[in-house]
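pasting input
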Amino acid sequence: EAGVAQSPRYKIIEKRQSVAFWCNPISGHATLYWYQQILGQGPKLLIQFQNNGVVDDSQLPKDRFSAERLKGVDSTLKIQPAKLEDSAVYLCASSPINRGKKRQGSYEQYFGPGTRLTVT
Amino acid sequence: QKEVEQNSGPLSVPEGAIASLNCTYSDRGSQSFFWYRQYSGKSPELIMSIYSNGDKEDGRFTAQLNKASQYVSLLIRDSQPSDSATYLCAVTDSSYKLIFGSGTRLLVRP
């Protein structure tokens, strides 16, 4: 079974530029997550999609970050304009959880390789 | 503010010893508990999940959960240098959002 795919793996941009990240989840996984991981910290959830709808975006800085998951499969996360403090690894994860089917194991999240963003 | 607390380490153990990693959480409504391993420069890898009080064993790994004390631990038996990594504790809150600790860095000395 193929894992979560992400691209690009690395990106260097100047502040105030824009950048986009792409994620393809594990086949059949209904839920997709974007996390930000700053060096020395645990991942922090930015946004959660259930199929193509947003479940939680409470920690997404909506003035500069946007995300979409068209057709309930692939997702893109965009930052515009970038700030120095956006330098981090952006992780995409997926899980099989589906609302109304809460069972053990369905909340296990599997991560992609991440995109390391450096803003200069 | 829902929190997951871990000692940042590093926890240094000799090869062959038992490594004990601990985690506490603040949300009494938490139902699912996970341990992820993260090598330097890599993404987190799920190694254990536990949902009910008690112990769960998988190979050299044992996860322990005590909901009354809001405490989760991970034991690694016969530690190997390849186990050297950061171990992230993650807990679902009452809305099933995953909250991560900052991780404990484990060093296994040959």
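fyi The CA atoms of residues 32 and 69 of chain A lie 9 Å apart.
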